[in-house]
């Protein structure tokens, strides 16, 4: 597939899995993140253009964005740090507005947004601002695909498999099931495969009837 994906947060846990799958499918891939190329090495990484840029500094990445066909937003935070301005509002919503604004009327073939299936206990605002971003994207004129994963696990995040196993176990205990029932641990590589397949289908015009597609 000779199309270009611009993946914001392509060096992260979810982002790397998406970028890896996309490279396997012969997409050209540009990843944008502050650190640029990930620290650990894998040969597929040589096929990616790793751009070191802060998403809140559009001058650092706007030309990359304009060169792409598909935009993927895989940036997000688990916990807020108000001192560093790392708030859910900024990371889950304002950055989406910023990227769309920087498209400057250019319509991407598809905009993929990684939302979430549910909020996090004690982290007020995590899901609220993701929903705000979803609503904002639904108003745009270009096709949008929203993915709403639950807890993700994979080799890229050491503790994630242990956590997924523990949650599966806790769900079997009748008195705890109610607390954990919404959490459906999923493989990050499976999510990434679904995302890349959706991108391929969208580019092939297979889902023309659905302007906005959602995936849980
Ligand atoms: N992991 C899960 O279980 C899970 C479940 C449901 C939904 N999600 C969603 O999936 C998305 C990705 O999560 P993740 O677990 O992959 O997070 P992650 O591993 O922390 O990755 C975040 C990525 O964003 C980049 N980034 C952060 N701040 C940035 C900035 N200011 N400018 C440019 N790049 C920036 C990071 O690279 P640098 O630090 O180098 O900039 C990294 O590439 C999030 O929206 C999250 O809410 C995750």
TrEMBL record:
SUPFAM superfamilies: NAD(P)-binding Rossmann-fold domains. It comes from the Bacteria. InterPro entries: ComplexI_NDUFA9_subunit, NAD(P)-bd_dom, NAD(P)-bd_dom_sf. Residues 9-158 form the NAD(P)-binding domain. This is NAD(P)H-binding protein.
